[in-house]
Amino acid sequence: MARAMLEYTKTVLRKVSFDAKLFLKELKKAVARLLPEEIEELELWLKQFVTDKPELQEGLLYLRA
What we know:
By secondary structure, this protein is an all-alpha fold. The protein has four helices and no strands. It is globular, with a radius of gyration of 11 Å.
């Protein structure tokens, strides 16, 4: 079940990546719902996902806070 939530989160983030504000909003909701080890995994995924999307890299700062 927990794995499903992480995969769902990735799907949502991919779909809203066209809008940086919406992306950050969804990322904040995800951090509130995911388990600590899932957040670590999400951070690894996010680093790869935003490599070519500088407008979304602010999300990395939020995860580290």
